[in-house]
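Predict structure. Chain length: 105.
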Amino acid sequence: MLTSPIAMVGYGGLALLLLGWLIASFAAPSPRRVIVEWLGTCGMYVALLSLFVSLTLRAQQEGSTAALVAFGVLVALFASGLAVALVQTAISMRAPRAEASSATN
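Prediction complete.
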């Protein structure tokens, strides 16, 4: 069975989310845990973004303007959330260890 590239990216994001959640749940608070939390957050946004991109493409194929607008807004929302999470991940990787913010605050 062939899987679309969008679905494969979504499943990868979901796997990253679950792995990050498990590691962050059982790890002691530390700078490395903060990085793992932000990576898990990025995985969540990737999974949601791929879901809504897929639904947007389906709405476009079916010619449904209302669904296209609704899913397009959600794509924009989750794409901006992914951008923020990626920036926070980069900041937590390079920030002095005492100042890193956590994704679970």
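Summary: The CA atoms of residues 54 and 97 lie 38 Å apart.
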